[in-house]
Write a structure and sequence with these properties.
Helix content is about 85%, strand content about 0%. The longest helix has about 35 residues. It has 3 helices and no strands. The chain has a single domain, classed as Methane Monooxygenase Hydroxylase, Chain G, domain 1. The protein is mainly alpha-helical.
Length: about 90
Amino acid sequence: MANIKSQIKRNRQNEKRRQRNKGLRSELKTRVKNAEHAIDDGADDAAERMRLAQKRLAKAGAKSVIHKNQAARRTSRVMKRAAKAS
């Protein structure tokens, strides 16, 4: 355990960020999964779900929740799947 005041604060900040990022990553997985299921089932709202997944991925990449290349790769995979289905 740290005994330097600035390091104690840094640890608190890191833990807060870790918890927030964990939730955001979980949401990303859910959005992508929902989009993929909608695409595979040919649902009416597949385009909307795909758009929401893309939006969240781009935002997470921009804010460094995930690496920007990973966001681009995941987006590409969803788009490729959509193109294949239609």
